[in-house]
Design brief:
Number of strands: 0
Strand content: under 5%
Order of helices and strands: HHH
Length: about 100
């Protein structure tokens, strides 16, 4: 009887350990290098979108592009920037991402 209980206990432990492999379940990554890399990439995309919007505004005020083109491009890049910012917010839980500290002037 004790041997049967020991065997059942061992089988239960083995099942708990091996069940993620059998069901192909994955643990969600909430931290770590993958999340940090994704956050850095999103911040870089956000900065590119903001820089593009600044350049677009400068070109419009300099008379290089028409108002219709300016409005179309500005709407498109604002939408892209908004999408990236929403993805950053979703990753950080609404808290602003920590910027790397800069040494020097």
């Amino acid at each position: 009887m004790i041997a049967l209980a020991g065997i059942l206990l061992a089988l239960g432990a083995v099942w708990l350990v091996l069940s993620p492999f059998a069901t192909h379940a994955r643990a969600p990554l909430t931290d770590g290098p993958d999340r940090v890399a994704e956050l850095r990439e999103l911040c870089a995309l956000r900065d590119v979108a903001y820089e593009t919007l600044r350049d677009l505004e400068f070109d419009f005020h300099a008379g290089k592009i028409s108002e219709a083109d300016y409005r179309e491009l500005a709407d498109r890049y604002r939408g892209e920037a908004l999408g990236v910012v929403r993805r950053i917010d979703a990753l950080t839980g609404g808290a602003p991402p920590a910027e790397p500290s800069r040494v020097g002037p």
